[in-house]
Amino acid sequence: MKDRAMVVVAAGSSSRFGSDKLMEEVAGRPLIAHTISRVVDKVDECVLVARNDLIDRLDGLGLGVDIVPGGETRTESEALGLAATGPARLIGIHDGARPAVEPEMIDRLFSAAMESGGAVPGIPPARPLVYRDGLAAVAKAIRVQTPQVFWGPELKAAFRSAAAAGYVGHDTADIVHNFTSLEIVVVPGDTDNVKVTYPEDLELVRDRLD
Predict the structure, then answer these.
(1) I need a surface site. Which of 8, 96, 99, 132 has the fewest CB within 10 A?
(2) Closest C-alpha to 206, from 50, 64, 24
(3) How far is 57 from 63, CA to CA, in rounded Å?
(4) Angle, helices 74-83/152-165, rounded to nearest 10 degrees
(5) If you average pLDDT over every residue of the chain, what do you get?
(6) d(CA 208, CA 182)
(7) Is the N-terminal amide bond of 147 cis, ω within 30° of 0?
(8) Does the pLDDT value for residue 21 go beyond 90?
(9) In degrees rounded to 5, what are phi and psi of residue 28?
């Protein structure tokens, strides 16, 4: 059994970006190449989940990872990536559109997950959050980032259970929370660990990738 595996999920349509953001050139390389380079040396195995129509182009980049087609939803794409990994004590799932993740944070997440069962990076919200009914402030709210790391066998079992129940989660931790008893701890995240969603987000990560 390997110690660490990572699934990088990059199977979305990029509809809000307006073009294939994974292939946008930043600091001389496609965005997805930066993401992979940040995580691949931190794990024993890395699987990239991508849209079918991009697989040939991604293969041509020589990323040094296994590439598999994604599904109709984020949850399905994560499940397909997990199914493509071998046995591992710990498995992380990371957004392909977060190219500026720091390798040191990846290490912290794997270490925390080894102790607790699961770990996610979190940062305070950019502005106050309130409940829709009554407008009371949401106490202790955080913005969750990726990678999210969990005990491998339990993570895979959770996704099998979610599929059987027809459950679609909003992120990996949601699946783990609902289908395992693992404790999930929050590790300090990084405001520079930006998820590229819109074209202007490229400017936010460009300095980190030079």
Answers:
(1) 132
(2) 24
(3) 11
(4) 130
(5) 93
(6) 34
(7) yes
(8) no
(9) 85, 0
- What is the C-alpha separation between 49 and 66, in angstroms, rounded? 9
Structure tokens at 206: 């460009």
> What is the residue-wise DSSP string for the chain?
-EEEEEEEEE-S--TTTSS-GGG-EETTEEHHHHHHHHHGGGSSEEEEEE-GGGHHHHHTTT-SSEEEE--SSHHHHHHHHHHTS--EEEEEEEETT-TT--HHHHHHHHHHHHHHEEEEEEE--SS--B-TTT--B-TT--EE-S-EEEEHHHHHHHHHHHHHHT---SSHHHHHHHH---EEEEEE--TT-----STTHHHHHHHHH-
Q: Is 31 left (phi over 0), alpha (psi -120 to 50) or beta?
A: alpha
The C-alpha atoms of residue 63 and residue 39 are separated, in whole angstroms, by 11
Question: For 49-88, what is each residue's pLDDT tens digit?
Answer: 999 999 999 999 999 999 999 999 999 999 999 999 999 9
Question: Residue 210 corresponds to which amino acid?
Answer: D
Could you tell me the two tokens for 51? 């849209």
